[in-house]
Amino acid sequence: MAYEQTMLQQLKQLLLDEPKARERKNKNRAIKHILAKKYPSLRSIDPGVLQEAVKKSQSLDRSWRKLLEENPKLRGKDYDNKQEQERVSKHRLGYNV
Predict the structure, then answer these.
(1) pTM
(2) How many angstroms separate the CA atoms of 35 and 43, rounded?
(3) Which of 30, 39, 53, 77 could form an S-S bond across to 21 if both were Cys, CB 3.0 to 4.6 Å?
(4) Would you list the domain boundaries of the chain?
(5) In Å, what is the CA distance from 25 to each residue of 17, 21, 34, 36?
């Protein structure tokens, strides 16, 4: 719980401090920066490679969700619990739900 909040706070602070990070074209760079702060060993990876990995990860996530939407047989046991999981996650992140 504190982990997500800390990451959220770091992202918010980055967006407040660095106006360039607010631009969609710089989103992956901002995410890379936050991840490298949390996981210092990532700093040894070429920044461009890490930024591309972030981009590919997001693309794979979208593809994963689309495949599950289109192929019910591929869904896990928790697929139908999405609304409850989202509510719990939002509450944990500080949203009013």
Answers:
(1) 0.68
(2) 9
(3) 30
(4) 2-92
(5) 17, 8, 16, 19
Structure tokens, 47: 């920044």
CA distance 81 to 61: 18
Contact 21, 30 (CB under 8 A): yes
End-to-end CA distance of the chain, in Å?
16
Nearest C-alpha neighbor of 17 from the set 34, 3, 35: 34
